[in-house]
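Thread: sanity check for a docking pose with zinc ion

Original post by kr_44:
Hi all, I'm comparing my docking run against an independent structure prediction. Below are the sequence and the ligand SMILES. Could someone generate the full complex and paste the C-alpha cells? I mainly care about where the ligand ends up relative to the chain.
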Amino acid sequence: MHYRRCGNSQCLRPFQINQFDSNVGVEVVRGYVICPHCGFRMAGDDPDALYQTHPMAPAQERHFNALKLTEGFE
Ligand SMILES: [Zn+2]
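Reply from moderator J.T.:
Ran it for you. Here is the predicted complex with zinc ion included:
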C-alpha cells in the first residue's frame, strides 16, 4: 500500500492511495491524486494511471504523523 500526505497547507493529512492501470469502474481522474479529506488535487507519479484514495484508520494516521512522514509504503 502507498500513503501520501496532502499538499494543501490547510489540510496536510495523510491518506492511502491505490493505483490502477486501467479503468476499474470507480469515479477517478486519470493522472491525479485527490485528497479524500479536502478534495485537493495533486499530480500522480504516472500521468496515465488511475488513483483511488481512502482515509487512513485513525491509529494509522497518528502513527504516520508521529513519524513525520510525507510519503510511505507498507
Ligand atoms: Zn487534504
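The CA atoms of residues 10 and 66 lie 19 Å apart. Hope that helps with the comparison, let us know if your pose agrees.
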